[in-house]
Amino acid sequence: MSFAPTATAEGQPTTCRCCGRHAIGIGIGGPNRDPGYLCGECILLVEELKRVRRMDPYELAALDGGVDAVGEYIGSIGGLTELADFDEHQQRMLVKAAWTGCADRLREVIRKGDIPF
Predict the structure, then answer these.
(1) Is there a contact between 104 and 67 (Cβ–Cβ < 8 Å)?
(2) Rounded Cα–Cα distance for residues 103 and 54 (Å)
(3) Which of 31, 42, 103, 116 is the most buried (most CB within 10 A)?
(4) What's the chain's average pLDDT?
């Protein structure tokens, strides 16, 4: 898997190398490479992240976190099963649940040191 750049051409942080959320100016990249900027939450995992060589298996585990979070959200609003039946706020909250569920599970798996394969 190739990582998306985490900085603009001018070197400003864009996306977190780990979870894809908004990054800040701390990274795990090296000289002459992408800085590997991280978000505030993933910075707390910096030592564990240095050991991760392939994110693909971790991303698959993270998807399970997104599925769990979406299931919980849908259960909390009750009765709606078709996305078209959700109002705009509910649609956005569903996507937020998926996004944060994935990121939270990814950090959890990395923090535990479990290799998910």
Answers:
(1) no
(2) 16
(3) 42
(4) 82
> Of 51, 74, 91, which residue is a domain's last?
51
Alpha carbons 7 and 39: distance in angstroms, whole number: 12
Whether 44 and 72 share a structural domain: no
CA dist., res. 75 & res. 86, Å (int) = 13
> Which has more pLDDT, 17 or 51?
17
How far is the first Cα of the chain from the last one, in angstroms, to the nearest whole number? 16
How confident is residue 89, by pLDDT bands cut at 50, 70 and 90? Answer: very high
Range of the domain at 67: 54-112
CA atoms within 13 A on the CB side of 36: 15
φ, ψ (nearest 5 deg) of residue 47 = -65, -40
